[in-house]
Specification:
Blueprint (H helix, E strand, L loop, with lengths): L2 H22 L5 H6 L3 H16 L5 H29 L2 E7 L4 E9 L6 E9 L6 E9 L7 E8 L2 E6 L4 E5 L11 E3 L2
Parallel strand pairs: 4-8
Antiparallel strand pairs: 1-2, 2-3, 3-4, 5-6, 6-7
Helix pairs in contact: 1-3, 3-4
Length: 188
């Protein structure tokens, strides 16, 4: 057996396993969340690696069958990924600095096909490659009273989120990990 006949299927399985892990498990590590959170692209890569591995097979019918299945799988993964990206794309709105090493990240995304917007808040604990980020809240402005208005730090490990009608949502961070002990969501 040639090294290629062993390496390519193993690489394909690794890429497929990583795609499944990223799709089903949301990581707190910023490095993984921002740079490796592409399950559909990893799935397409796994299919293409398997097609490349199939080129070395002896039986032509098996080569063609695996090539067709891998091509359909890669095309399907890319198509579903593009659809998911169109409906779940978020853009960064900014950060609210807090006591070191914390800051709050603000992201905005469209809410379905209408003019509504969803504001996503998360708290980040900076630590280089081991920086972590946790969800803090989600606010959909389809009801104008529920729209996000502001967020401010009220202490070294406490945050207050305010919506348009004046309601506030006080949040406390765990003293050891920095993870929020509760989250807030309106119409999300």
């Amino acid at each position: 057996m040639s090294p290629r006949s062993l390496v390519l299927p193993a690489a394909s399985l690794c890429a497929g396993g990583l795609a499944a892990l990223v799709y089903f498990h949301d990581s707190d590590l910023v490095l993984l969340r921002e740079h490796l959170n592409h399950p559909f692209a990893l799935g397409a890569l796994a299919c293409l690696l398997m097609a490349w591995a199939a080129l070395g097979l002896r039986w032509r019918w098996l080569r063609v069958l695996i090539g067709i299945l891998a091509g359909l799988g890669a095309g399907g993964a890319l198509f579903v990924g593009l659809i998911a990206l169109a409906f779940t794309a978020t853009k960064d709105v900014g950060f609210v600095d807090g006591p070191a090493p914390y800051r709050i990240r603000l992201q905005q995304s469209p809410a379905g096909l209408g003019p509504d917007r969803v504001m996503w808040l998360s708290v980040r604990r900076d630590g280089g490659l081991l920086s972590r980020e946790w969800d803090l809240g989600c606010f959909n402005d389809d009801d104008p009273d529920d729209g996000f208005e502001s967020v401010k730090w009220t202490g070294p490990r406490s945050v207050e989120i305010r919506v348009a009608d004046g309601r506030t949502f006080p949040m406390t961070l765990d003293p050891l990990s920095g993870r929020p002990q509760s989250t807030a969501a309106l119409n999300c």
